[in-house]
Every structure is written in C-alpha cells, then in structure tokens.
Design a protein that fits this description.
158 residues, mainly alpha, 66% helix, 0% strand
C-alpha cells in the first residue's frame, strides 16, 4: 500500500547552490582533523555532518544559516549545562547572531566560573579525605594519643 501522506515535493532538498555550504563544512572538518592530528594521544573531536545535502533537508542551505544554527545549538547546550534543563529553542532561534554571540560569550564565562568552583570544591573534598586518612593512620600506628597516662597525670599534679 502506498502512503499518500508523503509529499515528495517537500521531502527533497531545494534546488539551490550548496557549494559554498559544502566548502564551509569541508573547511570545518579539515581544520578539526588538523587540530586532532597535532596531538592525537590527547585530542578528540567531532565535527558537523559534512554533507550539505543533509543540512539542506533541514532548510539550511547557506553558510549564514549554518552559523546561526551552530550559535543556537551552542547557546542551548550551554544553558542546559548550566541549569540542567533545555531552554525554549524557538525563542533562542529568533535571536540575531549578534545577540546569540553575546549570550554564548556570557554563558561561556558562567560555565568557566562554575567549573572553577566545582574544581575548588573537589580539591577541598580530596584534601579533607587525605587529612582524615592521615589522622586515622596516626591513630592506628600509635603516633598520636587521645589522652594522658596515669603516670603523666600524677607527675603533673605533684
């Protein structure tokens, strides 16, 4: 049985020149691969789908549209990382690129502050654990006493 709900006219990519978008995607992939190749033992990265036709199916046919989508995605992910909930995508998608760039910069700074605070808290927690283990070890080895002997008390009274 044929599904008559499928509209083949809208299920194909629009007839536009995707060469500039394809070149942009290829440049992103090449730059990312080169960065990873500089130190492959410690670097890993991914890049966007490098086929412009895939993006065209989502209505993204220009470099400007791709950059806008990337900014929207960055801002949404930063908000999710900071606040543990997804923002209203449509509202963010309506923002200008300049607004998105400013928001991404501000959110990036907030993320950095949050990471620094989490690192300080973790360092403090680890230091406390190490100190607690050292105290426990000193009690077990007899290096530290918890009181006085009767002889010491008597000598101190005399």
């Amino acid at each position: 049985m044929i599904n008559s709900n499928i509209n083949t006219a809208t299920d194909t990519a629009p007839a536009t020149d995707l060469a500039p978008l394809q070149a942009h995607l290829d440049a992103i992939e090449a730059k990312t691969r080169a960065w990873v190749a500089e130190d492959p033992a410690t670097r890993w990265a991914c890049w966007p789908v490098a086929d412009a036709a895939v993006w065209a199916k989502d209505g993204i046919t220009t470099v400007a549209q791709f950059r806008h989508k990337a900014l929207v995605t960055e801002v949404c992910e930063q908000i999710k990382d900071l606040h543990h909930c997804r923002p209203d995508f449509e509202r963010i998608n309506e923002m200008s690129d300049a607004e998105l760039e400013a928001m991404a910069q501000r959110l990036g700074q907030e993320c950095e502050r949050q990471i620094e605070e989490e690192n300080r808290e973790e360092a403090s927690r680890v230091a406390e654990e190490v100190a607690a283990k050292a105290r426990e070890a000193s009690f077990l080895t007899g290096e530290r006493r918890s009181g006085f002997t009767i002889g010491e008390l008597v000598r101190n009274l005399a």
